[in-house]
Design a protein that fits this description.
Oligomer: single chain
Structural class: alpha/beta
Bound molecules: 5'-O-[(S)-butoxy(hydroxy)phosphoryl]adenosine
Number of strands: 30
Helix content: 25-40%
Distance between the termini: 25 Å
Strand content: 15-25%
Largest sheet: 7 strands, mixed
Strand order of the largest sheet: 5-4-17-16-18-19-20
Number of helices: 21
Length: about 650
């Protein structure tokens, strides 16, 4: 973000007070901040009491060997029991847990907590029968159907950590994750619906399984939900239909309590190198963090609210704010399979109207695309049930914030801009809707229990009105425990930069405004944020150079009105590829889609003769970003050959 935009942002002076009725009945009050600061561990212990523990902990936090934390040490619990069974035992078995809305109109299904308990138990029995044991990893590659939630909870129930891979990822991406976590089984579907058409998933699993085998890892079983009825290839030794196994299994299953630190799941996310990081979350702390924040930040009233988070379960938001947090809190929620505008542009608003959604959580990129379509579409629907609106994934620009609040929330529902990461497991910085006033564009302050700071390169807190690096200064229950199989990378990536102070380095730049409120500005490393999805520049560069015509590639994230950032690639072709042919750009875009997935497709690919490098050979992405954002190219004095930028710029004006 340029300094100019930044100072405009910080001049934002609109303020929205919490609605009086919400404030009067708020779950957390102002005093919680002080109380948490007074005795942080006692505060977190109080939050952990939201869960049902089979055995209580004897120590809240073990931080004797930082950065390896243990929370609620000695405690034992079962995550699925907490998300399902205990609500049934409390007499709420008939309450709808999930209003599932399929993309094809009228394809909908409600699941009560009792039904969820039955299905999760059946799936748990099936997994055990297929040979999955406590501690084995299970990959989940599914569309947004109830079985996806059931699959996750069934894994949790038997203590088999899941790794959910976003259904939009390619077979290559799936294969590398299967190998990295040595998944014993995969749960998938024949396909899902996307913009009105069935879209296959099973073939990608078949390919990924073959690729994993060639790299020495065999997946033993693939459990397949029949969703679209499309033809699939079948390997009778490996493939098992869900309806023929889970559908026939016993609904009786006794959940076993696991250690608080038992691995719950691994979620892969992009880092600064080409290899995705498997972020490990464990049971007690993660569930405490997701349940507490979901209750506090959305001011959840489980008896009356209807909650809807539009994320996909393939991302951390779907884990913490569709599956674990909301279900641990016993909510009634919406689960929607499809795209926002299928079959009509008002599809989301119709769902809110029909199901009387009261809490709605989505991403700025979606809000911006609705803004473009205009207010007339949402205005056709009655959305007066909405009382809290959430935003996540990237900074929300003030225009989008105000539009969201005004057009969707009718100036009545406050917007909470929630900052967090795959690694933090749950929301860290956000207003509380009944306590904090709203400031368009600011995530405001850490929630009670969390300590964050904006610091200089040296780790000193910056004064109000200045910017620096965002750090978390104290451990929190839902923090990642490590990177799967790579403790060193865990230490190096998050804890080495401020090792002296013991701060967690988030990788984001931030600014404190004159009131001390936080503005998260975006990544300071080689990670991009495209429509709220995290992508690594290096990963896309590796994909590009794996194409036979490409010699070298550099990728930058350039500012984009719709997606926040967009992928812009600069490539040098191999000599023997000549000019690459007319369709070279299309060919490379297809190649990246295939290697990683559609979300990584470059918006723009420029074929260039050289890349700007320092004398030590490091690509100066800053300069490429100037080109991609149509700015005057900045300081080139540290380039090995300063004429390179002229070559690239002339290429660009020539239409490159
Ligand atoms: C990165 C984490 C958190 C779930 C979705 C993304 C950016 C996230 C905000 C926000 C500004 C935000 C940060 C962060 N980010 N939320 N409210 N304001 N930036 O999770 O894929 O792990 O990405 O997303 O850059 O580091 P993720």
């Amino acid at each position: 973000m340029s300094d100019q935009t930044l100072s405009n942002l910080l001049k934002e002076d609109r303020r929205f007070e919490p609605p009086a009725d919400l404030a009067a009945d708020a779950n957390l009050k102002e005093e919680a901040y002080e109380r948490a600061r007074g005795d942080r561990e006692a505060f977190w212990a109080e939050q952990a009491e939201r869960l049902s523990w089979e055995q209580p902990w004897d120590r809240v936090l073990d931080w004797d060997d930082p950065p390896f934390a243990k929370w609620f040490v000695g405690g034992r619990l079962n995550a699925a029991y907490n998300c399902v069974d205990r609500h049934v035992e409390a007499g709420r078995g008939d309450q709808v847990a999930i209003h599932w809305v399929g993309e094809p109109v009228d394809d909908a299904r409600d699941l009560t907590y009792q039904q969820l308990q039955d299905e999760v138990s059946q799936a748990a029995n099936t997994l055990t029968e297929l040979g999955v044991q406590t501690g084995d990893r299970v990959a989940i590659y599914m569309p947004m159907i109830p079985e996806a939630v059931v699959a996750m909870l069934a894994c949790a129930r038997i203590g088999a950590p899941h790794t959910v891979v976003f259904g939009g990822f390619s077979s290559d991406a799936l294969a590398s994750r299967l190998v990295d976590c040595e998944a014993k089984a995969v749960i998938t579907a024949d396909g899902g619906y996307r913009r009105g058409a069935p879209s296959a998933l099973k073939p990608a699993v078949d390919e990924a399984r073959a690729k994993a085998s060639s790299q020495g890892h065999d997946v033993a079983k693939v459990l397949v939900v029949q969703r679209t009825g499309q033809d699939v290839e079948w390997d009778a030794d490996v493939d098992v239909w869900w309806h023929e196994s889970v559908g026939q299994a016993s609904t009786e299953h006794t959940p076993e309590a696991f250690d608080s630190e038992h691995p719950l799941f691994v979620m892969y996310t992009s880092g600064t190198t080409g290899k995705p990081k498997g972020i490990l979350h464990t049971t007690g702390g993660y569930l405490t963090g997701s349940a507490y924040t979901h209750w506090a930040v959305f001011d959840l009233k489980p008896e009356t609210d209807v909650y809807w988070c539009t994320a996909d379960i393939g991302w951390i938001t779907g884990h913490s704010y569709i599956v674990y947090g909301p279900l641990a809190n016993g909510v009634t929620q919406v689960l929607y399979e499809g795209t926002p505008d299928s079959p009509e542009r008002g599809r989301w608003w119709k769902i809110i109207q029909d199901l009387k959604v009261s809490i709605f959580y989505t991403a700025p990129t979606a809000i911006r695309s609705f803004m473009k379509q205009g207010q007339e579409i949402p205005d056709q629907f009655d959305m007066s049930s909405l009382r809290v609106l959430g935003s996540v994934g990237e900074p929300i620009n003030p225009e989008a914030y105000v539009w969201y609040r005004h057009v969707i929330g009718k100036d009545k529902a406050p917007v909470v801009d929630t900052w967090w990461q795959t690694e933090t497991g749950s929301i860290m910085i956000s207003p509380l809707p009944g306590v904090t006033h709203g400031k368009p564009g600011s995530a405001m302050i850490p929630i009670p229990g969390v300590e964050a700071e904006v610091v200089t390169e040296e780790g000193e807190a910056v004064p109000n009105g200045s910017g620096g690096y965002l750090v978390l200064t104290e451990p929190w229950p839902s923090m990642l425990r490590t990177i799967w199989g790579d403790d060193n990378r865990f230490k190096e990536t998050y804890w080495s930069r401020y090792a002296k102070q013991g701060f967690y380095f988030a990788g984001d730049g931030a600014k404190k405004d004159d009131d001390g409120d936080l503005w998260v500005l975006g990544r300071v490393d080689d990670v991009m944020n495209v429509s709220g999805h995290r992508l690594s520049t290096t990963e896309i560069e590796s994909a590009l150079v794996s194409h036979p015509k490409v010699a070298e590639a550099a990728v930058v994230g350039a500012k984009d009105e719709d997606t926040g950032q967009a992928v812009c690639a600069f490539v040098i072709l191999r000599d023997e590829a000549g000019d690459g042919g007319e369709d070279i750009v299309a060919e490379l875009r297809t190649h990246v889609r295939k290697e990683i997935g559609p979300i990584a497709t470059p918006r723009q690919i420029m074929v260039v003769p050289e890349l700007p490098k320092t004398r030590s050979g490091k690509i100066m992405r800053r300069l490429l970003r100037d080109v991609a954002e149509n700015r005057e190219v900045g300081d080139v004095t540290t380039l090995a050959d300063s004429s390179v930028m002229d070559l690239i710029s002339s290429k660009q004006s020539g239409g490159g």
